Structures are given as structure tokens and as C-alpha cells.
UniProtKB/TrEMBL annotation:
It holds the Pfam family HTH_IclR. It comes from the Bacteria. The keyword Flavoprotein does not apply. It comes from Aeromicrobium chenweiae. Keywords: DNA-binding, Transcription, Transcription regulation. This is IclR family transcriptional regulator. GO terms for molecular function: DNA binding; DNA-binding transcription factor activity. GO terms for biological process: negative regulation of DNA-templated transcription.
């Protein structure tokens, strides 16, 4: 019965649009009788909300989600750095955690001038179709091996479905410290991401998403990598680990700059304030 309750709770669309009972039956894939019984119980427990004949996710789900200790600790440590990254780039910023073969978005920061993406806090996408997911895979050889043995999902015509091509991308990410993605999750959107490492393990990953016509990967990569390192150090100082995490190898080419220079290059001095990235 618990499996069916979860199946019903996960039937809701990312846009949060309420569902009629018939829509809930169709989306949940359960019988009308089972759906009616479960929906009644879930409303009573405040896991679902029923208003004007339509069902939506209840606030109890939000309250329970906030109790997850790992995501809360990482998010709290990361948010100031994510805000600085947004100020430096004025593009959409994500924080993602790995859950099985998906990435779950723990935070999203965007503004009026940044690209409008369907991603949402609490939403998930396949690891292999996103830069933030690939950053997490590149840092975890066991997870990478498992992912490469599975059929690779396709979200757009640009999604990488060849295991050899994906393995090559992940190998390059281990050398540079960043992953690059062009239109693999959303057409017209490109992304740069970097893993947040503590004691050699990826705790999460941070990314910047931009319209394809504003995609300058190596300019963005420097700021993203610096942000990931700053969050890593903050997690260590918060007691996530007792050993100090090691810095990743330096980035090649134009990324061999000082941290201050990286942040200044990522920002437009005419309209953006100096970011705390420069002080990381």
C-alpha cells in the first residue's frame, strides 16, 4: 500500500497544476477505487490538498522534505555562494544532489534576465542528460560504471545515448573539473557544472545554465569551479568531515588565472557588484 501511495504522490506534474480526480487516476495509473481510498487518506494526512474538486501536493510534503539532513546542510552552506555566482553571471544557477540515476535540484536561483527553465526545486532529471548530473557521475566511478551499463535516456535530439561518448565526456570532466552540456536536457540551453567535493566524494554539484547564444563555456567554467571549491571548504568548516578536502587540479588554458581574476572575468563590471567569489 505504501508503494501505491508514493506512486500517487509522484503523479503530479512539475508545474504544480492541480489535478481532477479523473486526471489523478490517469496520471497515477491506479484503479479508481484505489485512487479514491489513497487520496482520502493522503488528504487527511495533509500530504495532498483537495480544493474545489482538484488535488495538489500538500504542505506536509514540503515540511518533510525540509527534514532531510544532508540536503539541508548542503543547501544552507551553498546558498551564499550560489547567490554570489548568480550576481557574477546573472544566469540561472542550480544546486543538485544525486538520487539513484537522477539529479534532484535542491536550489535554483534565477532573475528577470536569466533564461526561463522548467527545472524546479525538488524536481529531478536523468544524471546523464544534465551537466550537474554528469559532474556527479564523473566524481563517482562506481556510479559511472552502473550508469554506462544502463540504456541512456534521451530528453532531446542532442542527448548523449552512446556509452563511449558519455565515458569520454566524463573522463574530460575529471581532467578539467567541470562538465559541459549543450541542449541535452533542454533545446536552446547550455550548461556548465562542477562537483562539490569533500574528502574525495561528491556531495552535490553546482551549475550555471544559459541560452545557447550566450554560451561561453570557459568563461563560465572558472566561476562555477570556484563556487564549487568555496562550498566544499564551507562544508568542511561546518563539520561535514574531519579531514580537509583537497583542491581539484587547476583548470587548463584561459582558466589558469587567479581566483580574483576569474570572478572579475565572469562579471560585467559596468553593472554588477564585486562578488564574494573573488574572495573565496
Amino acid at each position: 500500500m505504501l508503494d501505491r501511495a508514493v506512486q500517487l504522490l509522484t503523479a503530479f506534474r512539475p508545474d504544480g497544476e492541480p489535478l481532477t480526480f479523473s486526471e489523478l487516476v490517469e496520471a497515477g495509473g491506479l484503479t479508481r477505487t484505489t485512487t479514491h481510498r489513497l487520496a482520502h487518506d493522503l488528504v487527511r494526512l495533509r500530504l495532498l490538498r483537495l480544493e474545489n474538486g482538484r488535488y495538489s501536493a500538500g504542505l506536509m510534503l514540503f515540511e518533510l522534505g525540509r527534514l532531510v539532513p544532508v540536503s539541508r546542510t548542503i543547501r544552507d552552506a551553498a546558498v551564499p555562494f550560489l547567490q554570489d555566482l548568480f550576481e557574477a553571471t546573472h544566469e540561472t544557477v542550480h544546486l543538485g544532489l544525486r538520487d539513484g540515476f537522477d539529479v534532484v535540484y535542491a536550489e535554483k536561483i534565477h532573475g528577470h534576465g536569466s533564461i526561463d527553465l522548467p527545472s524546479r526545486v525538488g524536481g529531478r532529471l536523468p544524471l546523464t542528460c544534465t551537466a550537474v548530473g554528469k559532474a556527479l557521475l564523473a566524481a563517482d566511478p562506481a556510479a559511472e560504471a552502473q550508469a554506462l551499463r544502463r540504456p541512456l535516456p534521451r530528453l532531446t535530439r542532442a542527448s548523449v545515448t552512446d556509452p563511449a561518448a558519455l565515458a569520454a565526456q566524463l573522463a574530460e570532466a575529471r581532467q578539467t573539473g567541470v562538465t559541459l552540456e549543450r541542449e541535452e536536457a533542454n533545446l536552446g540551453v547550455a550548461c556548465v557544472a562542477s562537483a562539490i567535493m569533500v574528502d574525495g566524494k561528491a556531495q552535490a554539484a553546482v551549475s550555471v545554465s544559459v541560452p545557447i547564444d550566450r554560451y561561453e563555456p570557459w568563461r563560465l567554467a572558472a566561476a562555477v569551479r570556484t563556487t564549487a571549491l568555496g562550498i566544499s571548504r564551507q562544508l568542511v568548516s561546518c563539520g561535514v568531515t574531519t579531514r580537509r578536502s583537497r583542491d581539484a587540479p587547476p583548470l587548463p588554458g584561459p582558466l589558469g588565472q587567479t581566483v580574483t581574476g576569474v570572478a572579475q572575468a565572469a562579471a560585467n563590471p559596468a553593472r554588477r557588484r564585486t562578488s564574494a567569489i573573488a574572495r573565496t
